[in-house]
Description:
This protein has a single domain (17-257), classed as Rossmann fold, CATH 3.40.50.300. It is of the alpha/beta class. The protein is built from 11 helices and 10 strands. Helix 4 packs parallel to helix 7 and helix 6 packs across helix 7 (162-174). It binds adenosine-5'-triphosphate. Pfam families: ABC_tran, BCA_ABC_TP_C. This is ABC transporter ATP-binding protein.
Amino acid sequence: MSAGQLSAEAVAGRAVEPGLQATGLTKSYGGVCAVNDASVTFHHGRVNALIGPNGSGKTTFFNCATGMIRPDSGQVTYRGRDITRWAPHRVAAAGIGRSFQLCRVFPRMTVLENVLVAARARSLRTLLGGAYDRELVDRARGWLARVGLDHVEALEARNLSYGQQKLLELAGVLMADPETILLDEPAGGVNPALIGRIGTLVRELNAEGKTFLIVEHNMEMVMSLSDHVVVFDRGRPIAEGPPWSVQADPRVLEAYLGV
Ligand SMILES: Nc1ncnc2c1ncn2[C@@H]1O[C@H](COP(=O)(O)OP(=O)(O)OP(=O)(O)O)[C@@H](O)[C@H]1O
């Protein structure tokens, strides 16, 4: 590697530590092998991106890693701890939060209630229908302000644009204070102004210590935001590295364009 090709970590003097790691991960649906013997490491502290053509197994990989579906074989570790086949709530308790490709909010609840409900399972009192405690409400309002939705906290979520709903979902994820955040297509269906806001937020939260793993088709966002990009094709990684190297990799062009 030449001096001009030093990684962001080397330049910043940051140590590289493995975060979410998969070894030989495999998941088939009938005859379709969605994730095919995939071994990949996403580093702690970075903004990692997972890209690849439609149907290359990115969401299935996410789901296997977060306990939403059980892999057929292989291992998933998080910061050295084996989390293979852990239930989603255990994965969350280990410090991994996630959003979904099709944004999950409760349309007839208010914006504030949506963020409070995201924290509900972590508080027995609120789970049993008691009043939300002051501290929880303050924290929810803090995250709403952070994502730029504090001025609409009393609106029903169905009145928000799709991009605002994605920001709302992110505020709910942040209520658990995860150290690693998986975002499934944060820019999908979102207008350019809000894509910019989501990007800025990711950058700020990363600077505050949060690790990101982002599945995204918006290449402008991926290339401007990520420290490290992994490219999937047919269920496994075919290339990885900093954005500039992945962009120029002939294997990536072939996977996307079939050339
Ligand atoms: N529940 C399911 N049942 C059957 N096949 C599935 C299921 N989920 C995914 N697949 C198949 O597995 C393969 C990988 O799908 P997956 O959604 O993981 O890819 P992806 O890279 O996330 O795609 P996209 O970018 O379009 O969201 C595809 O061929 C898909 O049709």
